[in-house]
Write a structure and sequence with these properties.
Elements: H1 2-5, E1 8-14, H2 21-32, E2 38-44, H3 51-57, E3 61-66, E4 80-81, H4 83-88, E5 93-97, E6 100-104, H5 107-115, E7 125-129, H6 133-144, E8 148-153, E9 161-162, H7 168-173, E10 176-179, E11 205-208, H8 217-223, E12 228-230, H9 233-247
Parallel strand pairs: 1-2, 1-3, 4-6, 7-8, 7-10, 8-9, 10-11, 11-12
Antiparallel strand pairs: 3-5, 5-6
Helix pairs in contact: 5-6, 5-9
């Protein structure tokens, strides 16, 4: 038991995260680096306020990753925030410091490095499906790259599209389509954003933040029409490595 108490801990905060990429990734990483005293665990919360108990009772935690649906809710726990995370308005990485918890966002880094190789001159407009914490990091990157974008959600809001707004003209204009919703995640692999897929062409890129399955129903629709497709696996690896860099800096 004493040995367990001395373990250096990192973990993932989310809801219904048994499928977690992060735990498998970091467990393997610690093994490869012979870091026997390191441990990565899941903190599966039904409510973000459960974090109060973890912070009070758990020992030797040095960092967290944050996933759906807590990338914004977790911000009330942090003492300070990195400039980019503040601009994005969402946190997916927390580092324990002597001055308290510091929030970072590594999603934007992972997304930018993942999508850049696919971008061509005609990719000037993007649609972002979903309006949660991850979508904020995507919007930050598109702004940095000079790509115009619109959010798409179920409810009408100013300067956004609803799914029922989408038509031939819109889909043909917005040639980057990014799924930031959980639709299509295993085991619900038949689900996908409700958009007019018939207007997708070889001019399009379809990017899905989901990594399980490899090809979601959303991506398969794009592939069948000759579009470029990319899932979230590389983005996750890159953001995980950036988190590790932050924790060790």
């Amino acid at each position: 038991m004493e040995k367990e108490e001395k373990k250096i801990r990192f973990g993932l905060i989310g809801k219904d995260i048994d499928y977690s990429f992060s735990r498998a990734y970091f467990t393997q990483k610690f093994k490869d680096l012979n870091l026997d005293d390191h441990e990565y665990v899941n903190f599966d919360f039904q409510d973000i306020d459960e974090l109060y108990t973890v912070l009070k009772e758990q020992k030797n935690i040095q960092g967290f990753n944050i996933t759906i649906p807590y990338k914004q809710d977790v911000m009330k726990f942090i003492t300070s925030i990195d400039r980019n995370a503040e601009a994005i308005g969402a946190v997916n990485t927390i580092k324990f410091t002597k001055d308290g918890l510091k929030g970072f966002n590594t999603d934007y880094y992972g997304f930018q490095k993942s999508i850049e190789p696919y971008l061509q001159k005609h990719h000037k407009n993007a649609l972002i499906f979903g309006t949660g914490g991850a979508s904020k990091a995507i919007a930050f990157v598109l702004k940095e790259l000079g790509i115009d974008f619109k959010f798409v959600s179920r409810n009408a809001k100013e300067n956004q599209f609803t799914y029922t707004d989408l038509n031939k003209d819109i889909i043909e204009k917005y040639t980057i389509l990014i799924n930031c919703t959980p639709l299509g995640t295993f085991p619900n692999v038949e689900e996908k954003p409700n958009i007019p897929y018939q207007y997708i062409s070889t001019n399009h890129i379809l990017f899905d933040l989901i990594y399980n399955p490899d090809k979601t129903a959303f991506l398969l629709e794009g592939e069948s029409r000759g579009a470029q497709i990319k899932n979230g696996d590389k983005m996750l690896e890159l953001q995980a490595e950036k988190s590790w860099e932050i924790w060790n800096s």
